[in-house]
Design goal:
Blueprint (H helix, E strand, L loop, with lengths): L2 E8 L4 H18 L6 E7 L3 E7 L3 E2 L2 E9 L4 H11 L6 E4 L2 E8 L2 E2 H15 L20 E8 L2 E2 L23 E3 L8 E3 L3 H10 L6 H17 L4 E2 L3 H8 L6 E6 L9 H12 L2 E4 L5 E9 L8 H25 L4 H4 L7 E3 L3 E2 H19 L3 H10 L7 H5 L6 H9 L4 H9 L14 H20 L13 H14 L6 H15 L7 E3 L6 E3 H20 L4 H10 L5 H15 L2 H23 L16 H22 L3 H9 L2 H10 L7 H19 L10
Antiparallel strand pairs: 1-3, 1-9, 2-3, 4-8, 5-7, 6-7, 9-10, 11-12, 13-15, 14-16, 15-16, 17-18, 19-20
Helix pairs in contact: 1-3, 5-6, 7-8, 10-11, 10-15, 10-17, 11-14, 11-15, 13-14, 14-15, 15-16, 15-17, 15-18, 16-18, 17-18, 19-20, 20-23, 21-24, 21-25, 22-23, 22-24, 22-25
């Protein structure tokens, strides 16, 4: 199949837009060239170019097209629209029954002609988050001025211009015509070169100091920085996002290392790292003990003849200026205590419906105090940490670098002489922000971090700002996953229903919200706010997602929840773990099969609606040894399972259930459940009902998949 190659060469494209643009190009080209079946599509992207290569058919064969149009009685406007859509005239139509039919021969087309016809439309439909027009009045927009277009099919240039539809008239495509010339590195190899294929293009660009593959540039940068740092006994602080961004900023990556003025090394390491990252795209370095090193790493886009000495010196000067600004904010912030900043939070809006940051802090203080004894923390310290948690929002460093919220609060709290546990809690209360983050380690930090997340979820659910299938603007799913990690990893035994219900009530009173709907909780039977049940359902749903991500059986969690709605996450997971372990055994597998058989028989009879089988088993009707043995086993095992579950001995409960396997197997082997005598049949169905009920004390096994 012929090779189709397209390169769009422009001024510098923002790094964050490049990968998405390559995907967009692949999608649009795939749709536009669908008739020639593009295959093996591969894209390339970098600072000045987006490119695509694919194998396509040589052309589209001649074919016959039959299209049914509007009814013969339809208005003329409908018929005109159909003809316009298909580029036909009325004389080409024929009546077939009540409808017009367009039956015509569609001529074949060569791939080159198709490419030339569709490419202008592809480029005009291309969507950028932001785009610009240039060169005077123009209807064509691109992310940055587009300078060249390379379009080659099977080694031959396919010319097209950007005038819409190629029609005559004003040139709104800046005179750009697709050709076969590309350009190398802006400084190392300026000027054009001819392109005949994708492979030749990539090889020629490599000679001209351009690495076309983004993944290869990323690898070169990562390995180059690592090796360069190692020569000084240092390590690069991992930052995948920055690595991706820098790979989109350079065509010919040249790693370099510069020195940090020793006078700035007393700045917090996080301040230095974020300042370098955000302002300059520099990488932070650590020494062998994990401390901030007095060096920084960066990537140049040229191989300088002096080995990069002048480039390093220039970047060191820029960094001194950046760190001087950071020093100014750091010194200024510490002149005012964190506690004295709390009052200013009343002037910062948290959310239009949920009040100010000051009001939120008062909610956090209350909730952290409630949670503290439940997580083993001192309530006084937890309330103090919650009071100070958001105060760093008023500081200069956080104003400059919002990424350091919490971190700077921890530094300022320690500077003010706050108890170490309070300073650590202020620092860590946003954790975990993602699955790779650590957790607060001391109980005070756990109490404040959990309060922060539960308040966020409860507050937004209370004002009906819930996540939808298409959006989660307030990151409530992330907050829920963070809360669940805190509960699970620290094995916190909490009655979430009581905590959340009380907090939603407090939010309503604090913000003077009107009364809310009250419902009866399916978990506890208590009267609760309707939003409380929604929040709990939301948390349980996120728990299912978390388990699925971990490869655990979320169907077992569903089975446990169906058996007994619970708001104690640790207890739920312990039960689910015990049930999963049981199902992994031979006894569990066989008993599950027997359960399903019993449940199916009951379901068939219960659907008839004429009889119920929840009554007591009549021992006088147990005529066969197998049914007597099963009745005895159900009674004994049921009592044991109830006692062990009540004592939270779930593994022991599963072991007790395993004792049913033998009697159940013997029962189904020897006993005909649907006996001819009605009283015997009903008694045996009651036996199965009590078997199902005994097993359902542990979990609703009908929810188990597979």
């Amino acid at each position: 199949m012929p090779e189709f190659f397209l390169e769009l060469f422009s001024e510098e494209i923002p790094a964050r837009m490049q990968a998405r643009a390559a995907d967009e190009l692949a999608r649009l080209v795939g749709e536009a060239l669908g008739a020639v079946s593009p295959a093996g599509v591969r894209t390339f992207y970098g600072p000045r170019r987006i490119a695509l290569v694919a194998q396509v058919a040589a052309g589209v064969a001649e074919s016959r097209s039959v299209e049914r149009g509007p009814r013969v009685s339809a208005p003329e406007q409908a018929l005109a629209g159909f003809l316009r859509k298909h580029g036909a005239v009325k004389e080409q139509l024929r009546a077939e029954g009540d409808f017009w039919v367009l039956d015509r021969l569609v001529p074949g087309v060569e791939a080159a002609a198709l490419v030339a016809a569709v490419m202008p439309g592809v480029l005009r439909r291309f969507s950028w988050p932001k785009s610009m027009r240039w060169g005077g009045t123009s209807g064509f927009a691109w992310v940055r001025p587009l300078r060249r277009i390379v379009c080659v099919l099977d080694g031959v240039v396919v010319p097209f211009d950007l005038r819409e539809g190629g029609r005559d008239g004003a040139d709104d495509g800046h005179g750009l015509v697709a050709g076969g010339v590309s350009e190398g590195h802006r400084f190392h190899a300026p000027g054009g070169f001819a392109v005949s294929s994708c492979g030749q293009w990539a090889a020629e660009l490599l000679r001209r100091h351009v690495v076309v593959d983004a993944g290869e540039r990323r690898r070169m940068i990562a390995e180059g920085l690592r090796d360069l740092a190692a020569t000084r006994g240092l390590a690069v602080v991992e930052d995948a996002g920055l690595l991706d961004e820098v790979a989109g900023l350079v065509e010919w990556p040249v790693p370099l290392i510069g020195a940090i003025d020793p006078g700035f090394m007393d700045l917090p390491a996080e301040v230095m790292q974020v300042s370098m990252r955000v302002n300059q795209r520099y990488f932070a370095l650590r020494d062998g003990l994990g401390r901030a090193a007095p060096f920084f790493a960066f990537v140049a886009n040229i191989a300088a003849p002096d080995g990069g000495a002048a480039i390093v010196a220039g970047n060191e000067r820029v960094l001194r200026a950046r760190f001087s600004d950071a020093r100014h904010f750091w010194d200024l912030d510490r002149k005012v205590s964190l506690e004295s900043r709390v009052a200013a939070l009343d002037g910062i809006t948290f959310h239009a419906k949920l009040g100010t940051q000051g009001e939120r802090v008062r909610r956090l203080v209350k909730l952290a105090g409630v949670l503290a004894p439940m997580v083993g923390a001192d309530p006084v310290l937890a309330e103090r940490a919650a009071l100070l948690a958001k105060a760093d929002l008023t500081t200069g460093v956080v104003g400059e670098f919002p990424e350091l919220q919490g971190v700077m609060g921890g530094y300022y709290a320690a500077h003010d002489g706050e108890v170490a546990a309070v300073a650590a809690a202020v620092r860590d209360h946003y954790l975990p922000k993602g699955p790779g983050d650590g957790l607060p380690e001391n109980p005070v930090g756990v109490a404040v971090a959990l309060a922060d997340k539960l308040d966020q979820i409860s507050g937004f659910f209370r004002v009906r700002e819930k996540p939808t299938g298409s959006g989660d603007p307030y990151a409530l799913r992330r907050a829920a996953l963070g809360a669940l990690r805190l509960i699970r990893d620290h094995r916190l035994r909490l009655s979430l229903e009581k905590i959340i219900d009380s907090h939603i009530e407090y939010i309503s009173q604090q913000l003077r919200f009107p009364g809310v709907a009250i419902i009866r909780s399916p978990r506890s039977g208590r009267q609760i706010n309707a939003e409380t049940e929604e929040v709990l359902d939301f948390l349980i749903d996120r728990l299912r997602v978390q388990l699925r991500t971990e490869g655990a059986r979320h169907d077992v969690l569903n089975a446990v929840l169906e058996a007994r709605a619970d708001d104690d996450i640790v207890l739920l997971l312990a039960r689910a773990e015990a049930v999963s372990g049981f199902l992994a055994t031979e006894a569990g597998t066989n008993l599950l099969a027997a359960y399903r058989r019993a449940a199916n028989l009951l379901h068939i009879e219960e659907k008839k609606g004429a009889e119920t089988f929840d009554g007591a088993i009549d021992s006088a009707l147990l005529e066969e040894p197998a049914e007597r043995e099963l009745a005895l086993a159900i009674g004994l095992v049921g009592a044991e399972v109830a006692r062990e579950i009540g004592g939270e001995k779930f593994t022991a409960a599963m072991a007790s259930l395993a004792a049913l396997r033998g009697p159940v197997d013997a029962f189904f082997e020897a006993i005909l459940v649907n006996a001819e005598r009605p009283e015997l049949r009903q008694n045996r169905l009651r036996l199965l009902f009590h078997l199902r009920a005994a097993m359902n004390m542990a979990a609703d096994f009908s929810r188990i998949e597979g």
